[in-house]
Protein: Cytochrome bc1 complex cytochrome c subunit
Amino acid sequence: MKKLSARRRHPLAAVVVLLLALACTGGLYVFLAPSKAEADQTAQSLTIEEGKKLYAVGCASCHGTGGQGTTDGPSLVGVGAAAVDFQVATGRMPAQQPGAQVPEKRNIYSQAEIDQLAAYIASLGAGPAVPTEEQYGPQGADIAKGGDLFRNNCAQCHNFTGKGGALTHGKYAPSLEGVSNKHIYEAMLTGPQNMPSFPDSTLTEKNKKDIIAYLNAVNGEDTVSPGGTELGGLGPVSEGLFGWIAGLGGLIAVAVWVAARTAKAKKS
Structure:
């Protein structure tokens, strides 16, 4: 009789083979799958490409096909994503019509489209990035310091409480009441239209946060003027005018009344 020597398979052999297969598959994925950096770069490239399409439709006619600028609009090379976010999100761009100053109006782009436009413009040249909430948020802000900084750097145009004011040749400094913290920060960072820019070398990130906190304090919904009526918040100009018209006018009226009474007394 032939002896049949049958080798029995170990009961855990199938499990070991399965684990080895999974390990090989995982190793291949690690080597062959795209890295996170590559995936982020691909997503950023797609965002820039979408932004380029939006730019070609809404911006190229004034700013040039490559953002180089034309006689109808300045160059956008190097303005950065923050400038795009401010101008487009506040509706100032695309401009409705040429003029001494482009006013704020209703925004026609979604935030996703604004981000795409900003990514494309940022790709043309280095510039200020869109600030984060940590940069313009109220945490750690010094309102008193912000008031000093605002009065020294901004009140000449925007009035000492940010109510706005007139400039030359039909230009004006807009009111800052109701403007979001993000857009105030971006305006300081980029200097839109007639406004000078205040980079971190001039006003630090903390300084900008302090100024925003001051504006929120003086223009908040619950803010009450401690001196009674604020007369538009226009400061000594309106207060002096009120003094001349009401105060001096009242004195003149009293003087006329006294003179009239005196004349009647003499006649009688």
Summary: The CA atoms of residues 34 and 163 lie 53 Å apart. Residues 236-267 form the longest helix (32 residues). The chain has eleven helices and two strands.
